[in-house]
Design goal:
By secondary structure, this protein is an alpha+beta fold. The protein has eleven helices and twelve strands. It catalyses: ATP + protein L-histidine = ADP + protein N-phospho-L-histidine.
């Protein structure tokens, strides 16, 4: 007995479908074979009835009334094997019969009535005298256009019905054999589906308990194989995400401890007093610098949290992209100067470039990209910001550096949250993840191209703003709506 579940459902569905199909086929087959046999018998008797009627029309009027033995001669001429031939009067009285035992009563079946009315009659029923199933075919015998007598052929259907029963039982046996084979096949099919599902379910239950080191073994076909691969991939990604999270916690703990240690140390030192103004100014400067660093780390995590929860609000306006990039270069100029890095803006558009977006957030995007380029570039190298237009009404900004580059192994992961190629480089590993989401909020795309030891190119695509005369009213409405939300 198959226990409840998908396996039983599959077997039951197969069984029901095949059973109903075979049942309908059996009924149609039984009816068809019965009709075929019965029609064959009917056609045979009908043909002989026609011959008898034709013979009577040609020769009957010469002898039927004057020669009592005429009907006997007709019986001998048109008699059929295993069939009783009868000549009846219009009232159904038996005038002659090939059966030695003639009926005492008049024949009143429907076939005789039809023949008396001038048509061919057919009747299937039980013979009153014997109780057996018979078929009777009656036809009028016409003389000079007048219906004088009725010729009636009667044959037993018992042997035919017996043969039909044998064929029916045989066909039922075949159907039962087919049904048994289909049931066995469906059980095998159900097991081939249920066993992998049970295996996948067992492994999934272990994964639900936190055991992400186990994997679904075996090669499964079609959707089951895809499901197994998806679960294995999910477990692999969870392990990787947990590892990245652990690395992030370790890294952020170090990033937070370092400035806090400096702030605490200088605070205690300055509390003691006795320092000259220069030393005091140095200590306060370090405290201020480390405080800014802490604020930057916290703001980065807050921005990421807002983006994850879809709570980041953008103040949309028309932004001059070239001016924004120039401001970005000025903001990082001092940091680049310390490493002797030259930053250059290359304009390939030769026209104003305006986009619709939040200027502060777009500036955050390019500040993060340029800051990363400076961080991972060699001393006395260069960084180029290239602005160009694309055919699909979009602008492309490329941040190109000649730094250390990124290996192919890490290139697809650098935009993942918490991921850091170099954990000693500082930071939270959220910068590129935040950058990507901000670009996507502006309906743009970001892509990275890099070669280890050669450099990195970050490509940012943004949609251009419509001409101002077409969008002035829309911008005003958008600004008013955002102001009311705030």
């Amino acid at each position: 007995m198959i226990k409840k579940g998908i396996g039983r459902q599959i077997v039951m569905h197969y069984f029901i479908v095949v059973f109903v199909t075979l049942f309908m086929v059996e009924i149609i087959f039984s009816l068809a074979i019965r009709v075929y046999y019965y029609d064959t018998v009917y056609n045979h008797m009908y043909t002989h009835s026609t011959w008898t009627s034709d013979y009577f029309q040609k020769f009957g009027r010469l002898s039927s009334d004057r020669d009592p033995g005429y009907f006997t001669e007709m019986l001998q001429t048109f008699e059929l094997d295993n069939t009783e031939l009868m000549i009846l009067s219009r009232n159904g009285d038996v005038l002659a019969s090939s059966n030695a035992l003639q009926a005492d009563k008049a024949v009143q079946t429907s076939d005789v009535s039809q023949a008396v009315s001038g048509s061919v009659g057919k009747w299937i029923g039980r013979q009153p005298s014997t109780g057996e199933m018979v078929m009777a075919v009656s036809m009028p015998l016409m003389e000079r256009g007048e219906n004088r007598f009725v010729v009636r052929f009667v044959t037993s259907l018992e042997r035919i019905n017996a043969n039909l029963m044998k064929l029916t039982l045989l066909s039922i046996g075949v159907c039962l054999a087919v049904l048994a084979l289909v049931t066995l096949f469906s059980v095998g099919l159900a097991n081939s589906i249920v066993k992998p599902i049970n295996n996948i379910r067992a492994v999934s239950a272990q994964m639900a308990k936190g055991r992400f080191d186990i994997r679904i073994r075996g090669k499964y076909p079609y959707e089951l194989g895809e499901l197994a691969e998806t679960l294995n991939y999910m477990a692999k990604e969870i392990v990787r995400s947990n590892q990245i999270k652990d690395d992030f916690i370790s890294s952020i703990s170090h990033e937070l401890r370092t400035p806090l240690t400096g702030i605490k140390g200088w605070s205690e030192t300055l509390t003691i007093g006795g320092f000259d103004p220069e030393e005091t100014r140095l200590g306060i400067g370090i405290i201020s610098k480390e405080t800014d660093r802490l604020i930057g780390l916290v703001e980065e995590m807050l921005d990421f949290s807002k983006l994850q929860q879809n709570e980041m609000k953008l103040v949309i306006s028309r932004v001059n992209l070239k001016e924004l990039l120039q401001e970005t270069m000025l903001n990082v100029w001092a940091k680049a100067e310390q490493k002797g890095i030259q930053i250059k803006l290359e304009d390939e558009t030769e026209q104003p470039v305006t986009v619709m977006g939040d200027g502060n957030r777009l500036k955050q995007v390019f500040l993060n990209l340029v800051d990363n380029a400076i961080k991972f570039s060699h001393e006395n190298s260069w960084i180029h910001l290239v602005v160009s237009l694309k055919e699909d009404n979009r602008v492309l900004v490329q941040v190109v550096d000649s730094g250390i580059g990124i290996s192919e192994e890490h290139l697809n992961k650098v935009k993942d949250r918490f991921f850091q190629v170099n954990h000693q480089g500082g930071g939270t590993g959220l910068g590129l993840a935040i950058t990507q989401q901000l670009v996507e909020l502006h309906h743009g795309d970001i892509d990275l191209q890099s070669e280890l030891g050669v450099g990195t190119t970050v490509l940012v695509e943004l949609p251009l703003a419509e001409p101002e005369e077409q969008t002035g009213e829309e911008d005003l409405a958008s600004t008013e709506g955002e102001s009311s939300d705030e």
